[in-house]
Amino acid sequence: MTDIPFKRNLTLAPDTVDEPMPGLRRIMADNPGPFTFRGTITYVIGGGKVAILDPGPDAAAHVAAVLDAVRNETVTHIIVTHTHLDHSPAVKAVKAATGAKTYAEGPHRPSRELHEGDMLRSADRDFRPDVALKDGDVVEGDGWRLEAVTTPGHTTNHLAFSLHGTDVLFSGDHVMGWSTSIVAPPDGSMADYVASLHKLRQRRETLYFPGHGPAIDNAPDFVDHFIAHRKQREQSILQKLRDGPCDVSAIVGSAYAGLDARLVAAARMTVLAHLEDLVARGLAKADGGLPTIDRIFHL
Asked: Which of 33, 65, 186, 288 is most exposed, with minimal Cβ within 10 Å?
């Protein structure tokens, strides 16, 4: 597999505030784990009249830290990249405290028609934005302007946001420096995810602020590594199928040697996402019809 130059040098302490660049503050929730790195990052954009991007998990200490960071300021916008449980549930408390409107692509929903046994994972199903955003829509406030960039894949409703007048993109969980992103059907779609990577690669932003981990300061090159990684993962799956019919678990055992046991279930879902894409493109077949986690796959 391609050697991705991961960036894991984040020194931000939980529920404290720093200012990585003028006009931008960040507060990291105290929710470390195998899927969140050291925690989910909330961003405060602007000064005086501000936007809060990704309020974070429903954790009282984090909500208090976010509200303390904007004490004596006016929160005019609450913006959400996507509706996983570590990004949007704190909206309710922050909105109640500030009265600000919420902005996002839309509610959590599957990327495709649900199959028997499917379930949406880690989803904030209660969230509905006050203002639904489409690709290219602009959200602006006092001294700042954000362009919404639809980046489905990790979730169907995932958005990135470009900060006008800078080389900055808030990339949510679509591109992170510390790890590749999980793509888990039916919430996520590998075809959409890879297409969104190519979409970001065509943009001009060079500095990404992700939902977890440190900023990515060579973003186009980093996205190239992610695209290559996904292509190589696809090729490794096809090679396993060339050896004979097999199921998702066999592919994970072959392609993810030495994987942390806590991540095996996530790897199985990401492999399934690749297989769904391969079946849709006619490059693989699933015994019994639809590509599901318990099928046997073959060429």
From this structure: 288
Tell me the residue length of the chain. Answer: 299
146's tokens: 């954000």
Rounded CA gap, 172 and 78, in Å? 14
Give the residue-averaged pLDDT of 99-117.
90
Q: Is residue 73 included in any domain, yes or no?
A: yes
Per the structure, the count of domains in the chain is 2
Domain that holds residue 45: 17-226
Determine phi and psi for 55, rounding to 5 degrees: -55, -25
Cα–Cα distances (Å) from 103 to 128, 159, 225, in that order, read: 9, 10, 31
Mean pLDDT of 167-191: 96
Domain contains 144: yes
pLDDT digits (tens, 9 = 90+) for 2-13: 689 999 999 999
Longest CA–CA span in the chain (Å) reads 64
Q: Do 207 and 240 lie in a common domain?
A: no
